[in-house]
Amino acid sequence: MKKDVMSKLLLIEDDHTLSDLLCEYLSAQGCDVSQAFDGEAGLQLATSESFDVILLDVMLPVLDGFEVLKKLRATHLTPVIMLTAKGDDFDRIFGLELGADDYLPKPFNHRELLARIHAIGRRIDYVKQASQQTQLMNINHVTLNESARRVSVDGHELTLTGTEFAVLYQLMSHVGKVVSKDTLSQHVLGRRLAPFDRSIDVHVSNLRKKIAKYNDCNCIQTIRGSGYVFLDQ
Amino acid sequence: MKKDVMSKLLLIEDDHTLSDLLCEYLSAQGCDVSQAFDGEAGLQLATSESFDVILLDVMLPVLDGFEVLKKLRATHLTPVIMLTAKGDDFDRIFGLELGADDYLPKPFNHRELLARIHAIGRRIDYVKQASQQTQLMNINHVTLNESARRVSVDGHELTLTGTEFAVLYQLMSHVGKVVSKDTLSQHVLGRRLAPFDRSIDVHVSNLRKKIAKYNDCNCIQTIRGSGYVFLDQ
DNA sequence: AAGCAATGTAAAGGCTGTGTAAAGATCTGC
DNA sequence: GCAGATCTTTACACAGCCTTTACATTGCTT
Q1: pLDDT tens sequence across B55-73
Q2: pTM above 0.85, yes or no
Q3: Which element (helix H / strand E) includes B8?
Q4: Which of A215, B31, B157, B217 has the fewest CB atoms below 10 angstroms from its CB?
């Protein structure tokens, strides 16, 4: 929901002045921006780290933007917004058909760029959210009914608070996957996890206690330094 | 990939001539297009059926495009591409910040519109695909599950510390390539490698010991003076 | 072969993340 | 405005594990 902040971006642009300017603006808007100044360096970075969005200039030394995009798409699905001085249709269409997500002709308004970055992030969040929706889950002795907001353990109904339910729902809808405390905090409490904030720990502790009353399956495991995971089996 | 054909579209546009023209073109390209000629009718259709993408003109009778978008977003997450005669920045930014996925100023090339429709469809497919498949690496007897943070050797589950997992992940995601200690230190420990810092060596040592317990494949090799490499087979 | 630098690895603090009880703050329904 | 429920903060105990240290070993250079 508040993913707006902290997009991890890669800016591939050979004009140092423009690159620094953009970098400064986007950083001020809460993005984490990495820079590359030619196609090869950009591709190298793009394939070795993972970014939320890549901003890719078309006119680049060493390897041009289209080449970078083509090679990147051979292995990676990272969203790409192409930037270009050339404003003609053909270029735009070519970029989009090669697999770019968006295309922004220079000169552009910085705020429009940010808005387009957000648009892509938002769409991805929506789809992820939609694809994880399930009504009734029954995993490892625990049954969770999403729409009725009810949970039972081996048939024994639990009395959970809203937050406890939300935590359990997050964990159960990602069975077997580690869910970070930050993710939990954002989805359950609606805020980033602040240092020394122990709320999530306490909710998990209470949740475990309530579940353990009827079955000591230890279904909620701690992954030190990473988060919590709901175990299947 | 094969989503190219048969996108289900809703075109909300009051100019009948343009609407029919677009409709004809998009249909010829294999899209299933519904038409609405004012904002209210469009919103009605948009909320009662489900579309892959909605093409929304800004200047509309009864309810303008922004209003339609705002009301639609209250309940639906359908992708929206806004179309407008007004080319100014503010309009575009406003639309994007309201929740539009893309923004295309008139007059536009039909092929560009199609390319942008496809770009959105493609992104959605990618995300769906990515969010339902667990990232599994299986190299040289070692299986690593990224999202669950679990590792097994010939089927035997390993108990790794967070740092050991991170080191192994770095090495395995660059199979066959030498990863320098400095790179490892930066990605795994979050700091440059300082002189006399032996942490990485120790973690690699512990990792090897744990893996060797189940299979002495010596998959992690030392490249003296350069770093470490995870060997395939 | 000697010497040096890079690496392997066991062991020992010491720091950090986590569990949990209890107190304090905030919300909610009446 | 009150009472009860719920959430957050605080505090302390504890375990895990990261780093350091020290010494052994390896491999390259001359």
Answers
A1: 999 989 889 999 999 999 9
A2: no
A3: strand B8-12
A4: B157
> B136-230: same fold as B2-132?
no
CA atoms of B123 and B134, how far apart (whole Å)? 18
What is the CATH number that goes with domain A8-130?
Answer: 3.40.50.2300
Q: Is A136 exposed, middle or buried, given 0-12, 13-18 or 19+ CB atoms closer than 10 A?
A: exposed
Q: Does A126 score more than 90 pLDDT?
A: no
d(CA B82, CA B101): 8
Are B97 and A89 inside 8 Å of each other by CB? no
Find where tokens 């993913």 sit.
A3
- Largest Cα–Cα distance in chain B? 74
Q: Cβ of residue A225 near strand D, that is under 7 Å?
A: yes
Domain B136-230 has CATH 1.10.10.10: yes
Q: Which residues in chain A have Cβ-Cβ distances shorter than 8 Å to B132? A: 131
Lookup: tokens for B226: 């350069």
B109: tokens are 């090339």
Closest residue, chain B, to A113 (C-alpha): B93
Spell out the CATH class of B2-132: alpha beta
